[in-house]
Every structure is written in structure tokens, then in C-alpha cells.
Amino acid sequence: MSNIVLADDHLIVAQGIASILQPEHRILAIAKNGLELVEFVKQHEPDLVITDISMPDMTGIAAIAALKRINKTVKIICLTMHEEQEYAESAIAAGAQGYVLKHEASENLVEAVNQVLKGETYLSTSVTVNTEKPQLSSRQISVLRLLAQGKSARQVADELFISPRTVEFHKYSMMKLISAKTSAELIQYAINHGLMD
């Protein structure tokens, strides 16, 4: 029997998920947002986390990244209504091992839990993920980390002993490489891929 912490901002949905998993698995706690999820995982140290993506205060994807910084070995499944590839890729990049669509939960969630607990990955059949990461150079990563800390191009340039124009060039190159349309998307990429450590 494994110990599980659930997160969903709709209690009725979370209770439905719990009923699918019990009595084979033990539900230790149900969080209603990402911040609460992080706290419950610290308290209970579960074998597995099952989290929604769209939640108040902190999204599921942000919570996954936070949990992986706290405990790299914790296993995580996203249970969501989002079928879009970018959501699945963000969840996997942040550290999730499973991605299950809510309308498939009654048929597939138990199988997903069993696979992920064995160290395997589980994706709903209608979800596609490109797991190949674009390769950023060490200089690009240095620039990205500083930009993600809220520093201006001038401040980054001063810190890395390069020109502001070079900083802007690296920023543009990275955005093109990862298909980011805005600086915010670029910074989200840094967070999702653990480049902030």
C-alpha cells in the first residue's frame, strides 16, 4: 500500500479520485491549492503526489517544480482536464512522471499510479509530449538565470562582463530556440527545467 497526497481545488473531485484509489492506496491529505500541497508533502512525505494543474495561489506545475526542489525522489502524477501538448510538456519538464486526463481517471488512474510507483512514466493516450530539450549553452543559461531573477539587460551585462547588446542577442536566441513569444515564457521555461538552482 502506498501513501498518497492529492491536490485539487474542487473537494468533490478530490474525493472522487480518493474513492478510485482506496482501499489499495492510503490517502494522507487533500490539498486545495499548490501552496497547501507543498506544505502537506513536507509534513507527510508521501510515496506519490497526484495534482491538478489549474489551482489558486500556486498552479500544479509550479508546485511540482517546488516539490522536486525539496525532494527529487517524490513521484508525481498530473490529473487534469488540459489535453494541450504544452501543458503536458510543462508538467513533465517540471518533474511529473505521469499525466492523466480527468475524463479517463476512472479507467486509467489506477494503472498510472502503479506504473509511476514502479519508476515508469505514464501518459494518457491522447496526450503527446516532445521530451527533447533544446540545448542551451552555458552562457545562455547564465544569462537566463540572471534575467529570471528580475535583473535588467544592463545588470546582467555588468555581472557577466559582456555588453547589453550581447545579453539581448542571447535572450533573442533562447526565445527562438524554445519557441517563447515573451520574456515571461522564457522565464517559465527556466523554472520548469530547473535552471533556477
Automatic annotation (TrEMBL):
Provenance organism: Moritella marina ATCC 15381
Domain Response regulatory: residue ranges: 3-117
InterPro entries cross-referenced by the UniProt entry: CheY-like_superfamily (IPR011006), NreC/VraR/RcsB-like_REC (IPR058245), Sig_transdc_resp-reg_C-effctor (IPR016032), Sig_transdc_resp-reg_receiver (IPR001789), Tscrpt_reg_LuxR_C (IPR000792), WalR-like (IPR039420), WH-like_DNA-bd_sf (IPR036388)
Ranges for domain HTH luxR-type: 129-194
The protein's name: Response regulator transcription factor
PROSITE patterns referenced in this protein's UniProt entry, alphabetically: HTH_LUXR_2 (PS50043), RESPONSE_REGULATORY (PS50110)
GO molecular function: DNA binding
Record-linked PANTHER family: NITRATE_NITRITE RESPONSE REGULATOR PROTEIN NARP, TWO-COMPONENT RESPONSE REGULATOR
Alphabetical list of Pfam families matching this protein: GerE, Response_reg
Classification of source organism: Bacteria, Pseudomonadati, Pseudomonadota, Gammaproteobacteria, Alteromonadales
GO process annotations (BP): phosphorelay signal transduction system; regulation of DNA-templated transcription
Superkingdom per UniProt: Bacteria
Keyword Phosphoprotein included in the entry's annotation: yes
Entry keywords, A to Z: DNA-binding, Phosphoprotein, Transcription, Transcription regulation
PTM annotation (4-aspartylphosphate): residues: 52
